[in-house]
Amino acid sequence: MKILSNAVIQSLELKKGNANFLATIKGLVGSNVHGRTTNSFLAKKAASFKGRFLNQICVFTLIVFGLFNAGNILACDNCTSYNNDDFQIRKVQVTHHPYIAATVWEMEVKGQAGNTIPRPAGQLHGAPVLGYVFPTTLCPTSVGFDKTEGILALALASHPDFDDTPLWDESGDGDYNNDGAIWHPHWVVLVSDDRVEGGFSVKEFMADDQSVVLPPTNPGMPMYMDSPGFQIVTDRRTIRVVVPDFRIRNNLDFQYDGVTCYMEVNTGGESSHGGGEMPMLGVYSVFSVGSGDLSLPYSVRKKRR
């Protein structure tokens, strides 16, 4: 009897999970397409948040379909080699603490949170990025972007090949340009992107587009990305970040989820994912999803004084 490799077994398991997920999503959105009322998450949230959130959900649904596209499972070695217990989510939680006027965002994993960091590529093109990501229903304007379509997410990232937090010295060594490998936060706007196996990428724009608004702490890249400089703590199984209320314009009534993933930078030309035009920062593999179906079911837990 032929022994299957771990990579093949993992691919087969992912395909089975993706097929089940796609069936679930089709059930959620199927009747909505014809204008009938359903009891699905999407219908409930559309009724609750209306307007802005309805638009976000429509975009998010597209992202979900791309993210779990069963036909794009086989990917590069990097896409699967980092898929270990350090990225298997056990719990996701955002808690508001009124006595410090801040929310604490936490992701608990099966292994040791933040223990695995990417192996350097030695250059920007093809540079690997690992992430603990919190997709949210917050509007991009809540953190200083213009009112653009997409899903606002808080991404905790590590990438040793470059430093994109020029205002912050995370290591405290006096050098502001050598901290890429240290886990640090980014606000990003995610959009559906079928060019990458993971199904979405950070939204880009033309560098000369004067209509684009970014927070003043952005790293200067033509993407909807910000480097807010929030404190990140890795504590055994948990990675957490503290976000002051005023940095999200005191918006505390939002939904969220948790995702761990492998991303990669593309500055043009051939890569391990082939040629052609690729996103500057795309998601190539998703390791784990907090809710299991990316339905953004979690609400902010509010503590009393």
Query: What is the average per-residue confidence, as pLDDT, rounded to a whole number?
Result: 81
Largest β sheet strand count, sense and barrel closure: 7 strands, antiparallel
For the CA atoms, what is the radius of gyration?
Answer: 19 Å
Structural class based on helices, strands and sheet pairing: alpha+beta
Order of helices and strands: HHHHEEEEEEEEEEEEEE
**Which percent range describes the beta-strand content?**
25-35%
Which outline best applies?
globular
Write down the domain tally.
Answer: 1
Termini separation: 63 Å
What is the percent of helical residues? 10-25%
Which regions are unreliable across 5 or more consecutive residues at pLDDT < 50? 1-75
Number of strands: 14
Provide key terms for this protein.
305 residues, alpha+beta, 7-stranded antiparallel sheet, 5-stranded mixed sheet, 4 helices, disordered N terminus
